[in-house]
Specification:
The structure holds two protein chains of two kinds.
Chain A: H1 5-25, H2 29-58, H3 63-71, H4 73-106, H5 112-120, H6 127-138, H7 145-150, H8 159-169, H9 172-185, H10 188-195, H11 200-229, H12 232-238, H13 248-257, H14 261-301
Helix pairs in contact in A: 2-14, 3-14, 4-8, 4-9, 4-11, 4-13, 6-8, 6-12, 8-12, 9-11, 10-11, 11-14, 13-14
Chain B: H1 12-39, H2 43-50, H3 53-86, H4 92-98, H5 101-104, H6 107-118, H7 125-128, H8 139-163, H9 167-175, H10 180-208, H11 212-218, H12 228-237, H13 241-270
Classes of the chains: A mainly alpha, B mainly alpha.
């Protein structure tokens, strides 16, 4: 009888109670591992394999073949069209997003919730319908078709039409990211800057913009990813003129239909890379935000 | 706007004016244009075009496949979200970051790679096709593509709710003698249900209008794997504007109805 037995029972009791409480808020190991296995299988089939497959197929015939399919004139032209369209439509929507966020976040007015609902509207319109609406306005049989034709302006089946369709489908991205961020920063700092004699523009550039920059960048990269990757809306308005109005996603479809699988995957791999880059920046921004929040919490406690 | 409170910040008129102008030019006028065009079609013709046999087959596929895909996402998306929030395992951060991949990936690329994966000689197809699972150029392929594009919506809607779930309530239930299954059924599930339904609705709405990924994987077989947006494109290629407009209006009205339901659901679940 070495040692008081009470300690042992005490430890056992504690151990038992700990096991009890773990059993209370946690699943049995078997179920836990089954759930993890299911989740991993699901993400393997629907996330990892599709991603890896793009690059595996793109490089299936070696690096020189990959390079050749990208620099081939028609694919190269598609890359240029995509970059041009994004370079026009993203800044337009950024300008709109900033203006809309300023009006909605900093002022009170009637009909605000209606306005925010209307801004989100393009998200619930099927991309093909968006393209159709552009055709109905600017196509030959459209509302402005005869006038445009008389003035020799080409919108549908040309780059301006692609820009228009892209602007429509990417319309809400910047505004919807920026509105909540601008709302949460309030307007006291701007009021202070104005009281100290700064002009409206100066206040915007030096006070508002720095405080919302991460939200703005987030909106821009999402908007850009969609602008470069849009398929449905652009497919309706582009007219599929090889070497002129094919964007990268349209080029992918054309190559696929011509049974040039490796070339289709080569162009697609650039778009997949864009998606990965977008995700990378997004993760970085979230990490940065979480750190800033933590820092603010810690300094707040002191 | 008459009730505007005094506000020292400048720029309301400028930014509001630009917002309304841009919104009208890009969004409202085109949508109005579509509905105006509908008025040119007689009611009888509209009904005939919108309910043609091929159109009905396309709606059935679009809604049926979207429903199945949204159900798959509600089930597996919930498991994935649960595992990502509750458990620790290696590669967790990587998978968590990858959940947004279908959202960031252009739909054309998604369709291309999925069609290739499930084709006879693809990485998955070479095992599945001998078992009789044809994932490419079948209605099943449409479901697969729609599950892919809808997945982030299901997972990301549920994740924050799971993170904010109070463990104390579960502990209390356990202390009071409830088994884990009982705790799950009567404590956890009711709290998660609104978010699961909202995620389901978002994934469903996203799937109904989807076009890019399906073009590649469906094979566009008439009456079998043709979805509504594909029919619109085909009508346009034949310069049959009335047919395209009739289908577009049906799609648009149904997606606005879904938007309304989703808004209602989000209000209900945040209460």
């Amino acid at each position: 009888m070495a040692g008081p037995p009470s300690t042992d029972t005490e430890t056992l009791r504690r151990r038992a109670s700990r096991a009890q409480s773990q059993r209370g808020t946690e699943e049995p190991p078997l179920i836990k591992w089954a759930l993890i296995a299911l989740a991993l299988a699901f993400s393997l089939v629907f996330l990892l394999l599709p991603l890896v497959n793009v690059f595996a197929q793109a490089f299936a015939q070696g690096l020189p073949a990959y390079w050749k399919s990208l620099t081939e004139p028609d694919s190269w032209s598609a890359i240029r069209v995509t970059l041009t369209v994004a370079a026009i439509s993203v800044p337009l929507n950024v300008l709109f997003g900033v203006a809309a966020a300023w009006a909605i976040a900093k002022f009170e007015f009637r009909g605000k919730s209606l306005l925010t609902t209307l801004i989100d509207l393009p998200f619930s319109v099927s991309p093909v319908v968006a393209g159709l609406m552009c055709v109905l306005l600017f196509g030959l049989q459209g509302f402005f078709g005869i006038w445009l034709d008389a003035h020799d302006l080409k919108i549908i089946f040309a780059v301006p039409g692609i820009v228009l369709a892209t602007v429509f489908v990417t319309f809400p991205f910047v505004a919807r990211e920026l509105i909540p961020v601008m709302q949460s920063t309030g307007s006291e700092q701007e009021q202070a800057a104005l009281t100290l004699g700064a002009s409206g523009w100066r206040t915007f550039w030096h006070v508002t913009l720095p405080s919302v920059k991460w939200g703005l960048i987030y909106g821009i990269i999402l908007c850009n990813a969609r602008a470069m990757g849009e398929f449905g809306a652009v497919s309706v308005v582009s007219g599929h003129i090889t070497g002129h109005t094919d964007t990268m996603p349209l080029r992918v479809e054309k190559l696929y239909n011509e049974y040039q699988g490796a070339a289709a995957f080569a162009v697609a791999s650039l778009l997949a890379l864009l998606a990965l880059l977008t995700l990378g920046i997004k993760t970085f921004l979230e990490w940065k935000q979480a750190r800033a929040y933590e820092l603010a919490q810690r300094t707040g406690e002191k | 706007m008459a009730k505007r409170k005094f506000n020292a910040l400048p720029g309301f008129d400028l930014t509001m004016g630009f917002t309304l102008f841009y919104l009208s030019a890009i969004v409202l006028i085109p949508i109005a244009g579509l509905f105006l065009k509908t008025l040119e079609i007689s009611w009888h013709d509209f009904w005939r075009l919108a309910t043609a046999e091929r159109a009905l087959a396309a709606y059935k596929l679009a809604f049926g496949a979207s429903l199945l895909a949204a159900l798959a996402n509600a089930a597996f998306g919930t498991i994935l979200a649960w595992v990502l929030v509750r458990y620790e395992f290696s590669g967790k951060r990587f998978i968590d970051g990858l959940v947004d991949f279908p959202f960031a990936l252009p739909t054309a690329v998604a369709g291309l790679t999925l069609a290739n994966l499930f084709a006879d000689n693809g990485w998955l197809g070479q095992w599945l096709v001998p078992l009789g699972v044809h994932g490419a150029f079948t209605p099943l392929g449409v479901v697969i593509a729609l599950t892919f594009v809808g997945m982030p919506f299901a997972v990301r809607t549920l994740q924050p709710v799971l993170e904010h779930l109070e463990r104390e309530v579960e502990e209390a239930a356990a202390t009071l003698g409830a088994s884990r299954i009982r705790t799950f059924v009567s404590i956890i599930a009711p709290t998660l249900l609104p978010a699961i339904i909202t995620g389901f609705a978002l994934a469903f709405a996203r799937a109904v209008g989807e076009y890019g990924s399906i073009v590649f994987i469906s094979g566009n077989i008439r009456y079998q794997t043709e979805i509504a947006p594909q029919l619109i494109v085909e009508q346009l290629e034949e310069y049959n504007y009335s047919g395209a407009v009739a289908l577009a209006v049906v799609l648009m009205v149904s997606s606005f109805a879904m938007l309304y339901v989703i808004n209602w659901l989000e209000n209900w679940s945040s209460r």
